[in-house]
Structures are given as structure tokens and as C-alpha cells.
Please model this.
Amino acid sequence: MIDLPRLIQEAERQLSICNACRYCEGYCAVFPALERRLSVESSDVLYLANLCHDCGACLQACPYAPPHEFRVDIPEALGSVRLGSYRRYTWPRRGAGLFDNAIAASVLLTCAGAILAIAAIIGLSGMSALTTIDVRAGSFYRVVPWLAMLIPSLFATGFGVIVIAAGAGQFWREMSATHRLKSLRWRHVVGAVADAMRLQYLDGAGPGCYYPDRMRPSSMRRTLHHAAAYGFGLCFAATAVAAFEQDVLSVLPPYPLFSIPVVLGTIGGICIIVGTAGLLGLKLKAFAGGIRLSGFALDASFLMLLMLASLTGLLLLALRGTAAMGGLLAAHLATLLALYATFPYGKFVHAAYRFTALVKNRAEHDAEVTY
Amino acid sequence: MSREVGPPGQRSDVATDVNNPSLEDHVWDVVVVGGGNAGLVAAIVARERGLEVLVLEAAPPEMRAGNTRHTRNIRCAHSEPTSSAQGTYTTDELYEDLCSVGARPVDETLARLTVVQSATIPDWMTGHGVRWQPPLRGVLNLNRTNHFFLGGGRALANHYYWLAERKGVRVRYKAKVTNIELQDNLALAVIVSTGTLHRRIRARAFILACGGFEANRGLLERYWGSAAANFVVRGTPFNDGTVLSLMTRAGAETAGDGKGFHAIAVDARSPMFDGGISTRVDCIPFGVVVNMLAQRFADEGEEIWPKRYASWGQLIASQPNQTAVAIYDSKVRGRFVPSVYPPYESDSIEGLALMVGLPRQRLTETIANFNSHVTQGSAFNPNQPDWCTTVGLEPAKSNWALRIDKAPYFAIPLRPGVTFTFLGLAIDSNAQVRMRDSRTFRNVYAAGEVMSGNVLSGGYLAGFGLAIGTVFGRIAGSHVLMTSAL
Model:
């Protein structure tokens, strides 16, 4: 169980030491944002926690890190508050429990998705659809009817978007309660998009992220995150193009190998697999190296689901002309459904909260410069 | 002499395991005592010249690098703007600054040498992969004279350790040197103790870079008497002056004043050791400082930037019980870097006196008297000397003098926080340790705080300790090749 008030209090204690030291101000946005504050309230800690990208540069540089009696470990202190903040802003309150049982939730949801998909196939298309070889246009929909694919996915993603947006909104309001912005402009949002897309603050101000080795910087994590995130973007684009081809041009899938949806989806899928497998590998290496990974289950289950969704997608592409197509389609839809369902209750939310914090950071920084 | 040095990993670890008896058979080219900035620079430079180098670091890995852990910038001269500093800072100006903070340097030749060579440090550091911080904003605006490296001294030391080991320097931790074996003016070996184990480590040359003696209360008392008991040591707990004492007993000449140290005003509630930068109290120019008799004793508004912090350690060290209290009011809150401990806070001066144990009547009088001498002549400006001054008050407050009259009032108890001591080994311009009989030790060098007394006297110039360490670390590391014993 996460005792958020206690974690915030501990982070406040450590941050007051940082604010008297300030050696780390060149590393990222967290320390300049801290210096803008005379006193640190709990909403400020929640803000700084989500602004922190966990690059670890400050820890290796910290003269007060354990075994020093001040016991300063900002990546750990802010990381655990960050985890707590995901639970704090979620809805319904009961959903918070899913953050604590991320692996179980992912496995159960994937199984539920699989049962649902197989039930849909058997109920709507008949048992034989699972093993029929079918390569003509619309073959997927003869296994799982289009609406049976569309409605659960739309429902899950729509619900996720609403929950995450509401959470980010509440996060924004809480941050604004103690430090109201003078103004928020489009350029702040655009700047934050740039910060997020470059992972500006995951590079330890140049040499890289102190992960998985807490003493030696490396750009590996940033590169792998880029692969996973941009791969995800490519898959999203592939889906959008496919929807366009189907609903506007009335060309039904499966699409040829050298069509836009398949090329985008294939590259995206490979990027996701490389990125997620690499990130999982780094995580295991970090774990073996003795780094405390408070968000391990949350991160790992999200990475696994992303990887599984891509793997099943690529397998489906490779074997769509065989009798395995029906089963692979069921597996792919099941992992996708589990992925969508865990969006608001898993690691995916970090994108929303961190982006919100980045917008706030851009606006604050701007206000400071133009005073 | 042995020159067949392979990359780390290819060699057996026998030679570096202090617990391994066969260590005693090995003869290193260079043993560096102390793994802070000076020692690491010396080790890297010696290794780059093909020598086989062992660094003995008294601390465990997580506490390594001595006072380098607590540094954040290095003061160097530069004749044009660089990526790490703005404007120009000529060697003459740096030398003048050095003279202005204390008495004349003890050894003017070495002081000049340090200043001149400092100009080559930033390029050397950049060339060795050190990263600089982008120009600063805010309260720390020293960026013309001082070059700020990214992340401060522990990040710097981490990098140097990594670089040194990658080049093939061997490092032993928890390796405290407890004795030095000498034959007249030639050092043969050091005795390293880990717990009850003693190992003799032989080398052809020794570079002593093991810091001052600030962590040795007994040695501090020799020069400061009972006052030393009230000093806070904001630096590393590992600098206990053992090697300095050993060398002095063996005939080494000393340089510097026994009472000389870099000390600043720190929060009296700070840890006994290792509090570093965060225990520094930044509010002094914004209020008044009284001793435990509730009397002011120095000009809190004196504008001498390089001395701003360094002078208050010595000032408080000379007050009764080596304790003082900084007092300010709500008007200036937020104008300075907060201390790590929250200030005492009260709605009245009497209440504040009660909280920090000052005589109430006396403190009220002192504040009232101070307030009545404040002229609101010019506009208060915390960013530069503003001539907001007291008139007819002794001691005066010559800048930033505002009445202390807006509740709530705040108080921070102060102690001298010693960073490092100056008294050390006298050296020549090759960094070779001099003897009292005017010879030098043939194969013993010194770099860093352990020889800072050659250059520093009285005051301290922020960021200059690292410059001294880097200059003499490089000199020792390169000159060691010329050692006749090699």
C-alpha cells in the first residue's frame, strides 16, 4: 500500500536539502522549478515528481546520498510519489487498486480478452472460422465481425481517454492551487510537446541517463523509449490510415504487404518490440545492479502488454494466409483489449501526467524569464 | 623498472588487493595517497605517461573523493570568454583577488605559478571529458571568475574515477595510510591499514594528496584550544592529518598558518561532519549577526564578493562559545538561498531571544539601536552594493541595511563550519616535498589541500582550492617521471 502523504513528506524533507544545495540545477527541469518556490507544498511535490524523468543524474552527483545521514535519493523519493500520484488522480477510486496489482491485472485482462474474443468468434462466426484459411478482402471480419471488434475497443479507449484526461485535469488544478500561472499560451504547450518528443530531461543534460548503471551515463534508455513510443505512434498512424482506406475508400483489409497501413504497422511493431524488450532488459540489469525499482510491476506489465500486442500483430501479418489466422487474430485482439483497458490504470498514464507537468514547467519558466 | 602495463582486467588483481600478502612484493611506479581531485588528476596524468599507478583512498566508494565531493566550481583565469565562463579574468586580477582575501600568499612563486597555470585548467578538464554547466542565473552569479562543472564535485570525481580506471589506474578503497617508510630523503613504502590488517605497499614515487587535518579534533585544538570543540566540520570526515604528521616528523617542512582554514558560517544544527554546501547560511547580508551576548561584532553588509562566505567562519570562531545568531525579518524573506534547517520564527524579538537562548533585554536593545542608525538613503537592492547603510553605528553595516521591524522575525544559530585547513607540507615548484634541512624528498610529492598552505593564508577564495589541487596534481603527475628513483 502506498502512503502518499508520508511519501510526500519524505520528498519535502529531501527537497529542502536540495534547495539549500542546488548543485543539480543544470541537470533537468526539476531543480530550477524547485528554486522558483520559496516553500514546497504537497501539490508542488506532486508536480516535481511528475516533472522528474528518473534520469538519475542527481543521485550520482549527490553528496548527501546514502550512506550520508541526510539520506537524499531524489529519483527514489520522487518516483514513489509519482506512483502515488497515478493512484491519487484516477477514477473510479476503486481503479487505484489496479496500480498496485499491475501484473495480475494485465494477465487477468488478457485472459478475459481472449475468452471474449474466442466467445465472439464461436458465437458470431462459428467454431470453423477459427481454423478456416481465408485470404480474400474482409477475411478478418469473417472471423470477428467488424462491430464486435470496434465496439469493445472504442469503449475501452474512450473510457481510458476520459479517465486519464480527468486525472490530468485534477492534477493541473491541484498544481495551480498553490502556484497559479500568470498566463498559459500555445507556445508553452508546443514547447512541452517538443520536450516530451525529445525526452529532453532523460539525458542528464548531455551524457545520458544514469540507468541501468547508477554511476555511468548511457543514452540507451532514451533511445529505447523513443523506439517504443514512436513505434506506438506508427501503429496508431497505421490504424488511422487503415480506417481511412476501409471507411472512405471502401477497401477492406487485409492490405497487401507494401500498402501504407502494413508498412507503418510493421515498422511500428518492430520498433515497439525492440524498444520494450530493450527497456525490460535494462530494467532487469538495473534490478540486478541493486537499484530500487518501486514501479517495476507497473512498468513491466505495460511493456509486456505492448510487446505482446506487437508480437501477435506481426505474427498475424506473417501467418494471415494460414489456418492460424483465426487464433492469432483472437490473441491480437485480446492483448489489444487488455492494453486499452489498462491504459488508465497502468504505466501509460505517465505520458499524460508528465506532459501536464512539462506544460506547467514551460509556462513557469517563461513567466520567470519575461518578468 | 616495469613498464608492461596492460589495460585493467587483463592483469591479475593480486597487486591491488591490500589483503593479499603478495601485494608486498609488488613495486608500483606511483602510489597516490588520497583520491580527491588532486590525487585523481595526478594519477591520470602519471598514467598518461605510461606509469603504473595505484590510488589509495581512505573512504569507501560511496564516500570517496574527500572534499571534492563538496565543491561545485573552479576558479581559473581566462583571457577571453569560454564555454564555461563569461568575460575575461586576467591572471593579474586573480592574483589580486588572492591577495585581497588574506595576507600575502605564503610562497609568492607558487601562488603565481598556480594563478598562471589555472588558465590552462578549463581546457585540460574539457579535454578529459568534464562537462560544464550552462551559464547560471539566480543567486549564484559567479560565472565570470568561477567555472561551474555540471552537477558539482561528486559528479566530477565520479567522472575522474571512471576515466582513471579506464586508463588503467588501480584504486583501492578503505585504504588508510597509517605509516610511511623512509630512508633519509627517499620514501620506500606506505603502510596501509584496513581494520587490523596492515599491508606494506612499495612504490618508486609517492604523491600525497590526502587533504588537511580538519577532521582531527585533537590537531585543531593544538592551534585553536578548546574553541575547536565547537567547530562544525563541513568537509569530509576522512581528512585527519595522519600523513601530514608523519611527514612532519620525518623532517618535512611545513607551510601555512596552523590557524588558517577555510571556514564559513553554517547552521549550528548541522551534522558534526560532511554537511557541505547545504548547511551554509546565506542570510547574513540581509539582517544582523549577534554573538551570544546579543552584540553585533562585524559588518554584515561588507561587499567583498570573494570573501562573502569565507570571512564569517573566522569571525564566529573568535566569538564566545564560537556561536552566533543571524537575525532577519519578513521583509527579506525569500531573498536568499534557504538553509537546510528551518529558521526559528517569532512575532517578537523577545520571543526569538527566548527560542535561541539570547539575553532578551540585550537583544531588543541591540536591534532597536541598529534600527535607529539605519538610513533609508538609497533604494534597497540585494543584487549589488546599494549603499543602504548605517550611520554612526559601530560596527557599521555598510550595505543592505534595512530596519528589522516587520514580524515575524527569524533567527538562525551559527557556528564556524570548517571546510579544510591550510597548514600543510612545503613544496617546491615541482610539487616535491621540502625538508627542514633545505633538501627535498627525492620521490615524495604533494598536491591539493595538503599543500594549500603554500598558497593560501588567512582568507579563502571560492573555487581556488580545486585550482590549487588541479595545478599541483598535474605538476606532480608529470614530474614524477623525472624522479631519480624511477
